[in-house]
Amino acid sequence: MEKQIVLLPGDGIGTEVIKSAKKVLEAIAEEYHHTFTFTVHAIGGSAIDSNGDPLPPSTVEACKKADAILLGAVGGPKWDQNPSHLRPEKGLLGIRKALDLYANLRPVKAFEKLLHASPLKADRVQGSDLLIVRELTGGLYFGTPSERRDDGKSVVDTLAYTRTEIERIVDKAFQCAQGRKKHLTSVDKANVLESSKLWREVVEQKKADYPEVEVEHLLVDAAAMKLITNPTHFDVIVTENMFGDIISDEASVLTGSLGMLPSASLREDGVGLYEPVHGSAPDIAGQGVANPIGMILSAAMMLRHSFSLNEEAEAIENAVQSVLDNGYHTPDLRMHNGQKAGTKEMTDLIVDHIKTASASTCIMSCYA
Ligand SMILES: NC(=O)C1=CN([C@@H]2O[C@H](COP(=O)(O)OP(=O)(O)OC[C@H]3O[C@@H](n4cnc5c(N)ncnc54)[C@H](O)[C@@H]3O)[C@@H](O)[C@H]2O)C=CC1
Ligand SMILES: CC(C)CC(=O)C(=O)O
Ligand SMILES: [Mg+2]
Q1: How many other CB atoms are there within 10 angstroms of residue 340's CB atom?
Q2: Whose CA is nearest to atom 5 of ligand 2?
Q3: With a threshold of 0.95, does the pTM exceed it?
Q4: Which atom of ligand 2 is least distant from the CA of 245?
Q5: What is the enclosing helix (H) or strand (E) of 122?
Q6: Handedness of CA 122, 125, 128, 134 (dihedral sign)
Q7: CATH homologous superfamily of domain 119-254?
Q8: What average pLDDT does the chain have?
Q9: Strand 328-329 versus strand 264-266 pairing type
Q10: By CB count within 10 A, which of 43, 79, 218, 229 is most buried?
Q11: Is 296 annotated as a binding residue?
């Protein structure tokens, strides 16, 4: 298979972990006989520095032509005081909107070996396996007006959704639930917000189209509490943009680190951008210690969702699992035992495992 992949490293640890994903994909290409061609384009703070624009038109054009996109992370203190239109985050929001990537899938799975890396009690975390389906192109991050008023004495942000925008993300979540444990939790603030009342109405209406899926509604404050007190209660969670942003960082605590979580941002036709859930982590950038697993698992999601390469995606996931099972982990995972590894070492261990596993599969099939 031949595929064109656009890499958007961005800023901070984004530039470090994207190298890991590329290395892993190169190993997959070699072992499974695919041709992946990578081109690098600017986004975020580094694009402000190079092009005076957090999302240069050339980046958007390249992304539109690509078979899939991998993004590291954007942002950093250097650009924090910039005016809103020159913030790195505008680049990320801009590419999501430009490609209509409305469905953000954020799987959260507690690895057995890392149960003690979570500050939560291991017996609570054990067996956690949930999927957050976050609406990604509407809500507060995109509403207008969003501005200071009265010489800075007041301010307004706007939370707007159309029924159609809610319907398509709710449909996506029901479809995900159908392929999993058939339990859907819709998270909103329908006791206060009009937008949430419409959200709940749409979920109730869509229920009839997916009779096998059990549906519940939770208010976001209670959902945040239940997510860490009873995480195995959840299968698929569907929620609007900002609630999804917040509860997914919270859910990462189940895995031991924000650096573990991957994501896929999808358009209706399957076009996708894949990125870890974390940001540019300025506190550890440049030290070679960033956890590459969220980024590497995002590359696996790319293989599965954009290229239908399920076996190859599984090869990456199995390699990650094995390296963790062998006791290796980056320093963000607070473990009492095991072997600490940096970004490059973790990546090389994962690559080695992919190569060894593929070689042994070949030997077994040759003798079969
Ligand atoms: N998708 C994106 O590009 C995102 C960008 N940001 C931006 O990133 C910058 C920093 O934001 P923060 O609030 O600090 O969030 P962050 O996600 O960058 O970091 C939060 C904490 O988690 C740790 N962490 C995150 N990823 C890690 C990894 N792979 N390995 C080890 N530790 C990891 C960091 O060291 C930090 O202590 C800001 O400019 C923000 O706007 C934030 C979230 C998402
Ligand atoms: C620019 C932010 C909305 C990025 C973020 O925190 C996210 O998508 O998780
Ligand atoms: Mg976030």
Answers
A1: 14
A2: 245
A3: yes
A4: 9
A5: helix 122-125
A6: negative
A7: Isopropylmalate Dehydrogenase (3.40.718.10)
A8: 97
A9: unpaired
A10: 43
A11: no
How many angstroms separate the CA atoms of 159 and 89, rounded? 18
CA of 226 to the centre of ligand 2 (A): 23
Give the model's confidence band at 341: pLDDT under 50 very low, under 70 low, under 90 confident, else very high.
very high
Instruction: Assess whether pLDDT exceeds 60 at residue 86.
Output: yes
User: Relative to the CA of 44, which ligand 1 atom is closest?
Assistant: 3
State whether ipTM is beyond 0.95: yes
Q: Considering the domain 1-105+263-368 in this protein, what is its CATH number?
A: 3.40.718.10
Q: What is the pLDDT of residues 22-40, one digit of tens each?
A: 999 999 999 999 999 999 9
Residue 86 CB contacts under 8 Å (≥ 6 apart), including other chains = 48, 54, 79
Question: In the chain, what is the straight-line distance between the N-terminal and C-terminal CA atoms, in Å?
Answer: 26
Strand partners, 149: 154
Rounded to an integer, the average pLDDT of 158-186 is 98
184 within ligand 1 shell (Cβ under 6 A): no
Q: Could you confirm whether 53 is annotated as catalytic?
A: no
Question: What span, in angstroms and rounded, lies between the C-alpha atoms of 261 and 114?
Answer: 13
Q: Ligand 1: does its nearest atom lie under 6 Å from the Cβ of 256?
A: no
**Mind listing the pLDDT tens digit for each residue in 97-156?**
999 999 999 999 999 999 999 999 999 999 999 999 999 999 999 999 999 999 999 999
Burial label for 47, CB within 10 Å (0-12, 13-18, 19+), is buried
138 with 161: CB under 8 angstroms? yes
CA–CA distances in Å: residue 149 to residues 82, 142, 144, 152: 18, 18, 13, 5
Q: Which pair of tokens denotes residue 43?
A: 């986004």
Residue ranges, comma separated, of all CATH 3.40.718.10 domains in the chain are 1-105+263-368, 119-254
The reply to whether 189 belongs to the active site is yes
